[in-house]
Amino acid sequence: MMTKEQIRDLIATRIACTELDVRGDDGAHFEATIVSAAFEGKSRVARHQMIYAALGDHMREAIHALSFKTLTPDEATVPRDTTRG
Questions:
Q1: pTM, whole model, 2 decimals?
Q2: Residue 67 domain-assigned?
Q3: What is the pLDDT of residue 85?
Q4: Using CA atoms, how far apart are residues 81 and 20, in angstroms rounded to an integer?
Q5: What residues pair up with 23 in beta bridges, in sequence order?
Q6: Could you tell me if 36 and 17 are in contact, meaning their C-beta atoms sit under 8 angstroms apart?
Q7: CA 21, CA 7: separation in Å to the nearest integer?
Q8: What is d(CA 4, CA 25) in angstroms, rounded to the nearest whole number?
Q9: Is residue 84, in this structure, part of any structural domain at all?
């Protein structure tokens, strides 16, 4: 079982984030918003691979479900259309 703080720490130690918000209190299901300049020029798949790499084996073992949004700092300042993924 993982905590949102542990997930936040794992991501933050591997990716320089300007914003990192992890939510979830049941120890298995989490949501995160991750804003980083490291995502500049990367596809959504490449960004997600960076997050999976940061979390390593925890994604298979301790985290049951994690949904996340990966944004660049510029993308984070633009209002998002909430009807799209």
A1: 0.85
A2: yes
A3: 46
A4: 20
A5: 31
A6: yes
A7: 10
A8: 7
A9: no
Number of folded domains that form the chain = 1
**pLDDT at position 10 over 80:** yes
Q: Domain of 72? A: 4-77
Cross-strand bridge partners of residue 71: 35
Q: Which of 57, 1, 52, 54 is nearest to 24 (CA)?
A: 1
Residue-wise DSSP of the chain? ---HHHHHHHHHHHS--SEEEEE-SSSSEEEEEEE-GGGTT--HHHHHHHHHHHHTTHHHHT-SEEEEEEE-HHHHHSPP-TT--
pLDDT per residue as tens digits for the range 19-46 = 999 999 888 889 999 999 999 999 999 9
Q: Are residues 2 and 62 in contact, defined by beta-carbon separation less than 8 angstroms?
A: yes
